Every structure is written in structure tokens, then in C-alpha cells.
Model the fold of this input.
Amino acid sequence: MATGILNFRKKSFKHGVHPPEHKSETNGLPIRQFPFAPVIILPMAQHIGAPAEIVVHEGQEVSRGQMLAKAGGYVSVPIHAPVSGVVRKIANVPTISGKMSPGIYLEAFPYSTQVVEEGMPIDLETATPDEILKGIQDAGIVGLGGAAFPTHVKLKVPEGKHCDVLMINGIECEPYLTTDHRVMLEQGEDILTGIKYLMKCTGAERTIIGIEANKKDAAEHLASLIPEGDPVSVEVVPVKYPQGSEKMLITAILGREVPSGGLPIDVHVVVVNVATTAEIGRLLPHGRGIQERVVTITGPGVKKKGNYLIPIGTPLRFVLDEVGVDEKVSEVYMGGPMMGVAVSNLDISIVKGTSGIVVFTEKEVKRPEKVYPCIKCGACVEACPLSLNPSQLGILAKFEEYDTMAEEFNLLDCFECGSCSYVCPSHIPLVQYFRLSKSIVRKRRAAKQNGGNA
Amino acid sequence: MTILIALASLGSLTLVLAVMLIVANKKLYVYEDPRIDNVEDMLPHANCGACGYPGCRPFAEALVEGKVLPGKCTVSTEEGREKIAHYLGVSLGAEEKIVARLACAGGSNVAINRAEYKGIESCSAASLVSGGGKGCFWGCLGYGDCEISCDFDAITMNENDLPVVDVDKCTACGDCVEACPKDLFSLQPVSHRLWVACKNLEAGDEILEECQVACTACGRCAMDAPGNLIEMKNNLPVVNYREDHRTQVPIQRCPTGAIVWLDDKLGVVKGKDSKKIIRKGKRKTGYS
Done:
């Protein structure tokens, strides 16, 4: 039985919502390898920060795991070949953001053995923290929970600050998605190896793996793997959305509050997603680069639902063809239904940040016919996990008072979890308003800064 | 008696305060050129910022100081500008009229929507949901953020959901340039009649599936143009307006009509080889 510490908690963070989970469709299905698409399309801008810089040329033959593009700066990671093949074309490719990005069309060799190329291993015993950070960047690892922020930047503890707790995020509060659940059940050893690397490079004294109560089997499994005496514990928290957000998780488990505009390191915590941790534990001992990730493909419109290990760069159209979709498919989401993005183009590809694909048919997508005015019921205020005032922000957004929203109502703290839109009885698209307002505020601030420098 | 005391005390108080006011008025007087007020009255009070100053008042100050010439105000009428020039005794400084131009011709009759967007009816909101539903990544989304942003009613959305700029009303204030999330508007002198109405950066005919009037980067216009008038950059023709650009030769062989000639009387003139667009209604969403 469990040798590690396993705690069940009753308390969580304040506010939040309870959307239907829909996880039972896929959480019992083991991870399966997805076939290689004939042509893999790799955008260079698939992480936050500078796009990667292509180092191969058209017509070049590459082997699986070979680096195709190097990091375009400090906040950037390289991109590796997910398949052995030939670089067919270097051209602009569509991305989920709706913008074109430089990219690589990689044609797979159909009869290759697809052996992954080995690199320089990072030895856990001898490597210095900086070498581990470099290794994480070289492996092309970004936050696999969905944000796709380069992990090595997050792990770099700034001077004058220290990290006492390393938090491994296995919450997966987003409805429908079960990738982290399966990773915890099937890649437990990798997660523990990853934790060792992470503890060494952050200097954390202890590690907490945070898991929601709907994944008890995963929590028990991980706890049973932890050797006695290790400073690693598993904490199970009640199910609530959006607990998977860094700030909410820290509040739920440690009771510390990240200041407005601050980062977890301000309260001496570093949070890393559980799939990212597993990937670090799997890749670093071999010096390999990331070439595939686990993606949950689910939703009422999908015929063969499941958790698949999909090569990065697999075109979405190929994925949907393979799993089979209902004829009346009406909406495809990348990510979950709460925080994911509705896809407008099936020619985009699976990227490092794609945690799930959820397909809805016409039957499920019922749109409110009318948006009613705000009745100031306060449901959104009760739901907002950051205790913002979505009602007031929504009214301000309608009147385009974007600067007031940012300066007086902490608009920029909103991380677009969607809880307010979910509960609004007037069907006001609050999160869309905030997303728009945030982009305008950021644009204005950037313009101001450029003006000041000129 | 009480009445007399009240009158006397209030009267003396009034006197003291009045003296203070007089002293303050003399001591703290700031001289301001009276012409600034007069010039401001002659300006259109649009406070649009097209002149490069924050509003009409600062512009009037700059005019009186001789920093700028009245021609900078693009909103005022010809007579209005002349009146100011005459009043200040300066030259008119006539500048060529500048207007906002849209680098897209992909209305709903020629360009398809890949997906149906439902949400806040605004281009900038739609562009944040994986770029909006338009087939072309660069094209006009057609929800009319520019129309709303225009303070002079110079922009109207036509039956194909494309903004049309009224050249007479446009004051080149630049509000539409800022409002467009796809950066399709730019300010151009009216004499720039040779115009590339497309921003698609892809080469090849694949784009025609999305939009029938897109530039396919065939390069015919650049080949036909005299001298270095047109150069292909990033798969788009770029007109070098410093050269003599009063020629309709480059547009003639354009297969799609992406490069056009903007005529005062005839409106948009396409080359004789470009495919005619006869469809009136909207194209369907999705690929056939």
C-alpha cells in the first residue's frame, strides 16, 4: 500500500464553479500511440516568447528527435523532429492564434524504424542547477498544461528570492480532459524522476503533488511509488474549477496568496504541470527533445474517444479523420471547453500546448438567443476565483472604458477561466469582453512604451 | 441698528474681497495671445488629431506661434483654411489630401468564411478567437470596427460587408488605422491611384479557394510596370510611389484584379484580363 504521504483535504480556495466533468468517457482508457501523419506541419511559434529559428533547409533528411529549429532567445525553446523524414517545405503555416507563423512541412518516411535520436544526457547526480535548466530548454519543454510557457524560464529562481515548495500540478480541473490523469497513472516513475531534477534546479525543500478528488486512483498510485523518507507528498483537494490555475492551487494547498500582478515565486513556490514533470523525467536522462505529447480526444462528436500519444505537428484534420467524427460536428475546441479556443481552421496542427481536443455536435451547442442586460445579481462575483468584479468590468467593457478596467478593477489579473460567463444568467459573454479589453490595454501600453522610447 | 451693523460688516467684507480680486487679477495675469481664441474659433472643433496635435486648441497655439501652416488641418474646408491663413498673414501651406485606404477587396461575395463566428459583433473580438472565421488570414472580417471608430461618417459597410471610404468626408485622422485588428487601413495621398487591394502573403493559387480577388504573387504587375515602379516583397507587389506612378499598365494583366486603379469618376478600375466577379450574394461558409 501507500508508503508516501497521502493527505485528503476538505478545504479549497474561495469561490469557483462546478461545471459537469465529463471525464468518465476517457479516464479509464490507457494512452495509445497515434499513427504518424504523412505530412507533419510544425509551426515555429508554438510557445510563448520568441519563435524558434529554423536550422534545417528544404530537402534535408532528418531523423526523429533531431533539432529542427533552435531557441530564438532566452524565452524560447528549440523544436525537434517528431518523425524521421524529409523537410519538404519551409513556409508560413496557420496557427490557433489566427496568425501565420514560419513553419516546417515534414514528410515522414513510411518505412523508417523511427528510432529516436539520443543527445547529451543530463546526469541527475553530477549536473549543476544551471545545466539542468539548460537541459530543459534544449529538450524544448514548455508548460504542457496548455499555456506553453517555456519551463526553464519559470524554474529560474530570480536572485534575492528563494523557493521552498515545488508544486506539481495534477489538478486538471478542465472538464472533459484526462491527459494528466492518465499520465499520473502510467508515467509515475517519470514524474518522480522529473521531480528530482526540478528540486535540484529550484532548490526546493519539499514537493507537493496536488491532485483533485476525482482522481483518487492516480493519487494513491503516486503515493505508493514515493519511497519512504522522500520530501514528496500527495495532497488531494476537493473538486472545483478553476483549481488547476497556479494561484488557486497555491491558495488551496498552502493557504498562501500570490499578490496581484505577482508570480508564485513571490510566495516561494514554483508550480509545474504533472505532464511537464513526466516529460522532464523521461527526456533529460537521454538528452532527447520532446516530439510527442498526450492529448485527450473526446466530446460527443468523436467516435473513438481516448487518450493518445500524438506526434507534435500532426495536422488536426488528420487527427479527426483517424478518430472519426460525427457528421453533424459543429464546434471543435483545442483545450477544454472552459479555457480552450474554438478552432476556426482544421489545417492547424497539434502543438506542445494542446492538452485536448473536444468536439461538439449541433445538438450540444445551444446558443442563447439573446444577451440580456446585467441584472447585478452578483453570481459572477461569487464565482470569480480572484475576487474580481466581473459585473462591473463587463459594464465598463461595454462602454470601452478599458483603462479604468485595468487601473481600478485589476483587469490584468483575470486569467480568463470563464467562471463568470458560465454562471451569468443574462448570457453576457464576459470573458470574451475581458479578453478583448486585455488585448487593447496591452496594445495601448506597448504603444505608450514605444512612444516613450522614441 | 442690527440691520446697520449687518450692512456695514457685509459691505466692508465685500470691499476687502473685491480689492483682493483686483490685486489678484493684476498680479497673476497671464498674457495669452488673443489670436489663439480667434483661430480656434475658425477651426472645425473636431479634435480629431489628424494634424498631429492633441486637439484644435493646441493646433491653434501652434498656428499662432508659426510652427505649422493651416494646410495641416485636413478637416477644415478650403475657405476655412484660407481664412486662417489670411488672418495670420501666413501662406496656406496647402498639402495634398490624404485619405484612408483599405488593402482588402475580399467582401462576402468573393471571399469565404471557413467557420461561423458567434460572439461579440466586433472585428477585434472576432480576431482573438483563432483569427475569426474568415478563410483568408489577412482579410477584412467585416464587423465594422472602422465604421464605428470613424467620427466623420466617412466609412460605411457595403452590401458585401466591406468598408467603403467616402473620399470627401475622410479627414485622414487615422482612427480606422488603429481600429482595424488586421491592419488593413493606411493613409495615402489621393494621387496614389495605383493600389494593391490585398495583404495575403502566400504565393500560389491556393488562396483563390479562400478569396477570388486575392493576390497570387504571380508578379505580372511587377514585370509590366515601367522601371522599378513595382517590386515584389513578401509575395506582395509594393508600389514605389516615389517613381512616376501615373500609369495603368501594371493592372492590365492581373488575373484576379488584386491590383487596381482608383479613378475619381469610374471608381475602382480593374485590368482587362482580370476575372469578372458577377456574384451578388454571399458565398457559403465552409468549402464546397
